[in-house]
C-alpha cells in the first residue's frame, strides 16, 4: 500500500509518501519538511499562533511537492494519516483536518497516529518489522523509556519528572547565550571542551525507578554561571566549550546508564534510540560503546528521521494499516495524547 502522512504537531510542517510491503522495509518515496525554526528563533521558542498559521500556509504546497517527487497521483494513495497528538492543539488541528479531508474526498481510510509512536518506530523504518526491545525516546518535549513487545504493545518504564532531555539542552543553551534550538549548538560548542571540567550532578542514578530529572542539572549550570560571573551571569567565551561538554556529558551518562539498566530489567537484547537528542554524536558514541560492552544490539534512526518528520508517522500508519485498522473521521486531536500506560 501507499500512504500519505502529515506531521504538524509543533513547528515543522511535514508531508511524506511511503510504500510498504508486508514483512519488508518501507520505502520512503518522498519526504518534505518546511521548518519554522528561523521564524520562531527571534522569540527563543515556539509561538503557537505563528506555528498554526504557517502550517496552513505550507501544507498544500508540500502535499503537491511530495506527490510530484514520489511520482504518484492522489488515486494511488491507499490511506491518509496524520499526527493526532501530543503537541500544540492549533498545530495538530491543521494537519489532522487536512488528512481527514483528503481521506474523505478520496474515499480512503484515515489513520490517526501518536507523534511519540512515530519517534519510537523511526529506527525500524529500514527494517520493516519491530522486534521486542527497550526504547528510549529523547526529544524536545519527552524523555521516555519503554518496554516494547511489538507494534502497539508498549509499557512505560520511566519518564522525566521535570524537564525533557531536549528541553534541558534548549534551556541551558539559552542560559549560555546560544541560539535556539540549543541541542545542536551545545554539541558544536562542546567539541572543543572537556567533559570533566565541571562536576555537574547525575540525577537519580541511584534511584530504583527508571525516571529521569534534569532540572537539578540545569540549576547547577546556572549556579556555576552566577558564581563565576556574578556581574553578568553570562560566561566568558573561553568557558563555553567546557560548560557545554560537561553539561552534555552529564545528560548522556544518565541516559546511557538508565537505559541499559532498563534493558537488563526488561530482559531485552535490543535497545532503540529515537528523537532529536539521539542525533547527538557523543550520545551515539557512548551508547554504542556501552551496548557493545554489555552485549546489546543498538538501533538508531537515520539522522533525517530523528527530529520531526512525516516519514515516521507514515511508517507507524503502514504498520497499523497492515493490521487492517483505521481511525474514524471523528477521531479528535489530543494535545496530551499518552503513548503507553505504566
Ligand atoms: P516532542 O517530540 O517531544 O514533541 P520535538 O518534536 O520538538 O518534541 P524533536 O524534534 O524530536 O523534538 O527534537 C528536538 C530536540 O532535539 C530539541 O530539544 C533539540 O535541541 C534537540 N536536539 C537536536 N539536535 C541535537 C543534538 N545534536 N544534540 C542534542 N540535542 C539535540
Ligand atoms: Fe517530536
Ligand atoms: Mg521540533
Give the structure's gist in a few sentences.
By secondary structure, this protein is an alpha/beta fold.
Reconstruct the topology from this structure:
Layout: E1 2-7, E2 12-19, E3 27-35, H1 37-41, H2 48-70, E4 79-85, H3 89-106, E5 110-114, H4 115-121, E6 133-138, E7 143-150, E8 153-159, H5 165-175, H6 182-190, H7 215-228, H8 240-266, E9 270-274, H9 281-294, E10 297-300, H10 311-322
Parallel strand pairs: 1-4, 4-5, 6-9, 9-10
Antiparallel strand pairs: 1-2, 2-3, 6-7, 7-8
Helix pairs in contact: 2-3, 4-10, 5-6, 5-7, 5-8, 6-8, 8-9
The structure holds adenosine-5'-triphosphate, fe (iii) ion and magnesium ion.
What distinguishing features does this structure have?
binds adenosine-5'-triphosphate, five-stranded mixed β-sheet, iron, binds magnesium ion, binds fe (iii) ion, about 350 residues, EC 2.3.1.234, alpha/beta
Structural description of this entry:
By secondary structure, this protein is α/β, with parallel strands linked by helices. The chain has helices at residues 37-41, 48-70, 89-106, 115-121, 165-175, 182-190, 215-228, 240-266, 281-294, 311-322; strands at residues 2-7, 12-19, 27-35, 79-85, 110-114, 133-138, 143-150, 153-159, 270-274, 297-300. A five-stranded mixed β-sheet has the order 3-2-1-4-5, with helices on both faces. Helix 2 (48-70) runs parallel beside helix 3 and helix 5 (165-175) packs across helix 6. The longest helix is centred in the C-terminal third of the chain and has 27 residues, at 240-266. The protein is globular and about 65 Å long. 51% of the residues are buried. The mean pLDDT is 95. The chain binds adenosine-5'-triphosphate, fe (iii) ion and magnesium ion (MG). The site of magnesium ion has 6 residues, from loops. Adenosine-5'-triphosphate binds next to helix 4, helix 5 and helix 6.
